[in-house]
Amino acid sequence: GDADPALTYQVSGLKNGDTAGAVLNGGSLSRVAGENVGVYGINQGGLGLVSANYDLSYQGNNLTITKALLNVIADAKTKVYGDADPSLTYQVSGLKNGDSAGSILTGGLNRAAGENVGVYGINQGDLALNSGNYDLSYQGNNLTITKALLNVIADGKTKVYGDADPSLTYQVSGLKNGDSAGSILTGGLNRAAGENVGVYGINQGDLALNSGNYDLSYQGNNLTITKALLNVIADAKTKVYGDADPALTYQVSGLKNGDTAGAVLNGGSLSRVAGENVGVYGINQGGLALNSGNYDLSYQGNNLTITKALLNVIADGKTKVYGDADPSLTYQVSGLKNGDSAGSILTGGLNRDAGENVGVYGINQGGLVLTSGNYDLAYQGNDLTITKALLNVFADAKSKQVGTADPALTYQVSGLKNGDSAGQVLAGGLGRVGGEAVGQYDILQGGLALTSGNYQLNYQGNLLSILPLPVTPGDLGQLAALSDLRELQKGRDPDTPGDAVYRTTTLENPFLENPFLRAYALGMDVSDPNLLPATAAGPAEDASAKRVGQFTDRPLRAEAESGAGCSNQSYLADYWSCFNKPLNF
């Protein structure tokens, strides 16, 4: 591939100081054509004499084309662990005659085996010449396998305050040759210390490589501790209308790290919607709040229900007498609240079972109702008892002369009610104590009885007086028992001259009230307590014998002389002048 050298020659035989240049024509030798390695004859070519003094004798020689030295120098190569080998290239020098490496070289380089990080020689491999014009000179180099970059990027993490830390994980990129993170990494990440809400850096910790084929590139991240949700749920509450509000309490859930409600809440109180009437009132958060930055407060309200108070109405037991008007049906009230009065919350009134006869009648709620929605009415009834009326039966005093038939035993009735008549409520008749001798006999209730259960019979008796026959003047010696002559109402009945009238009952009469006055009878001696003989008629009194003269047809008259009392009477006079004074015989 080099240029042909000048084809030179040596000249001998010059004479006379001739020079080759002088005797030769300056023509050039030539050679056999060809450029490949080989031996090419050098011919006389155009070399000739210009001098006739010589004969030219030419002795050829050879041009030898030797092999050119083809230098192949391997390029140094680098690859990252795990990457494919780069092409093993080389530099070629010494090409001649327009030859190209591709035209004269075949095959390729190779390298020492191995994939781990290191230096591996690049060898000639099977690189060879396919041209005889060259000698191949190979100069090797190295393939250097460098560490791959293993990127470890920490995952951002979040946890709620009080929860356990999540696993600190990471993403790995750059693994080569089928390597796994587990096979080439050891240890683990850690984080900046702290448990309160905040952002804490995630550090490489003791995470390290156990493979020389990588360089570790760590990119950190953060663990964010977020606020825990503190749930406050108000307790449902109930109170009875008028009672004090119960304490508004609540349940707390979501406490963490051993916190207590008292430590993380400000101690404020719940509140409720205002109102005291029966109804449902929302329980609000009020002044309850957090004093810890580690929580978000979630409040769930509830209700305070005001229920109706029990208003007890207890009817008063009532009594009335048969025939009387009903008493007012009253009642007692208990359970009033909030300063309410019975009059402000009740309307209407009680009633009772119908009926007017003696008996027990239930007292009912009637039209008594509440005008307030704050109460339930509990009514407890009672009874109106109609008791028996008192029916007074007063026997009439009766008299008859001895030996005559009894008069009708009559009576007076008081206390009738409701338009009742004696004939409707009474049956039967009175009786008397037996006897027909002169004297007084009790008039008894006998068979008189009630036919109505509405009354109670109150019987008041009287006397039937059996009177002696009339005493007339001249009937001397006629006797009468003192016990048969008890008390004198009048000395003489002015309408019946000659008859004396006797009564057993005490009247408002000074004669009858005098304890010394035994009896009066026409012509009877009052000095004898047992027998009172008749005396002759006369208007004057014999004070010593205590005899009373014959009655005139007028009331007995007597008059005291002294005016101090009715004693030592000297003559008969009107007894009314001695009213309220003792009459002394």
From TrEMBL:
> Which residues lie in coiled coils?
none
Domain MBG: start-end pairs = 1-64, 70-144, 150-224, 230-305, 311-385, 391-464
Q: Which Pfam families match?
A: MBG_2 (PF18676)
* Family matches, as InterPro entries: MBG_2 (IPR041286)
Query: Which top-level group of life is the source organism from?
Result: Bacteria
Q: What is this protein's record name?
A: Hemagglutination protein
| Source organism of this protein record | Pseudomonas aeruginosa
